[in-house]
UniProtKB/TrEMBL annotation:
PANTHER family: FE-S PROTEIN MATURATION AUXILIARY FACTOR YITW
Domain of life of the organism encoding this protein: Bacteria
A Pfam family: Zn_ribbon_PaaD
The PaaD zinc beta ribbon domain, residue ranges: 106-157
SUPFAM superfamilies: Fe-S cluster assembly (FSCA) domain-like
UniProt protein name: Ring-oxidation complex protein 3 in the phenylacetic acid catabolism pathway
Amino acid sequence: MEQQRREEIIATLKTVDDPELPSVSVFDLGMVHSVDVEQGLVTVKMIPTFIGCPALDMIKKDVKRAVEVLPWVEVCEVSFSMQELWSTAAITEEGKTCLKKHGIAPPPEHYVVGEEWSVQCPYCESAYTSIENIFGPTACRSILYCRACKNPFEAMKPIIAQPANDKK
Ligand SMILES: [Zn+2]
């Protein structure tokens, strides 16, 4: 039964959108670290995505509200773990598809820190090579113009989790 309840929680988390990225759920962004169910008490541990995105409180409230709609849930506690590291590699395939549908290029896979990276235009899929420094240090996304189809599109900056011992 616990397993079934966990699955219900996950299905619910897939309906909670990130306020910064409408229509991509917090689950598909890879923000859900763990879900614990103990009778009517649900504990959701989440990993914050972009440092500096001021939406964490809103996400907390949205997740709590959505989970507490389930009839068997008495209380849902949501917390953000600052120990866990999120990276754009945690975005699910479904999440990437949702991003593209909304004109946002998902971050590149196999990104190596410090290297140039290219993104694909979400409309025509042509490769657009961007240069790291067009993104500010805290910006989550940036607006680019596709050279092939001339559409503006947004791209998510790749973020790779750095091991904690590199941060001295
Ligand atoms: Zn294009």
